[in-house]
Amino acid sequence: MIARAGFWQRYSRSPTAVFGLVVLVIVVLVAVLGPLVYPTDPWMMVARPFVWPFDDPEYPLGSDILGRDVLSGLVHGARVSLAIGVSASAAALLIGVTVGALSGYFRGVIDDALMRVTEVFQTIPNFLFVLVLVAVLQPSVVTISAAIALISWPPVARLVRGQFLTLRQRAFVESCQVIGMSTPRIIFTQILPNCMAPIIVTGSIMVATAILIEAGLAFLGLGDPNVMSWGAMIGFGRQSLRTAWYLALIPGIAIQLTVLAISFVGEGLNDALNPRLG
């Protein structure tokens, strides 16, 4: 309890971190509960086209070029954008942590081989690589998440490798080896828990990046055509930027606020998990 209190005390020192947490909680609640509270199908044409925000109380954020409810799209799109961001980041963390841990612990030939593979992925232009993968595999939530994960894991692998190279020399690791503790147990129960702070911070930033990449793909028409996302809403609204700019502005603000909130939370976590920075 004391540790938790200390963590929250350090985290709450930053007003931006608290603001980011509040916004992020709201976004998550909208993603989880929004479709239940506001079940209108975001693809259904329910009003006349181009109803401006606040002109019709039944459709508070107006309607788009086809008469679809903008608020419904915003609510349902939150779930899709967050799902892709979280799933892609989780997959990237799993790959990156595994590669980095093996590379940093065993060193030698294994380290050289894994780092060469990592360098290959880092030399490929990230967004172009995602475009090609999604275009070849057909756009869907799964393929988009997988493509984003494939470009996101190398920085994590290098971060974890550096941590393992440092921690492997510590006395507590040598003690574990002397008493005969197995290698997987040393990696997962002794070294990895000491690397979690930078991994958590990096993971939070990766979620924000993944949301932006998904929005870019959807804007270019490479999003999942079966689901509504914030990026897709911006893409639908680009044809009417001069006459109905709110169609791109509203989901754009949602993306911006969410990404900023995640970034602020990441900074707060960095300060809270690294007391020496204070």
Fold topology:
Elements: H1 2-11, H2 15-37, H3 70-106, H4 108-123, H5 126-137, H6 141-167, H7 171-178, H8 183-191, H9 196-219, H10 230-237, H11 246-273
Helix pairs in contact: 1-11, 2-3, 2-11, 3-4, 3-6, 3-9, 4-6, 5-6, 6-9, 7-8, 9-10, 9-11, 10-11
Structure in a nutshell:
Helix 9 runs parallel beside helix 10. The protein has 278 residues and is mostly helical. The chain has 11 helices and no strands.
Beta content comes to: under 5%
**CATH top level label:** Mainly Alpha
Q: Identify the CATH homologous superfamily.
A: MetI-like
What CATH calls the topology is MetI-like fold
Low-confidence parts, pLDDT < 50 over ≥5 residues? none
Second rung of CATH, namely the architecture: Orthogonal Bundle
| Structural shape | elongated
Tell me about the largest β-sheet: none
Number of beta-strand segments: 0
- Average residue pLDDT: 88
How many domains comprise the coordinates?
1
Q: What is the N-to-C succession of helices and strands?
A: HHHHHHHHHHH
Provide the structure class.
mainly alpha
- How much helix is in the residues? over 70%
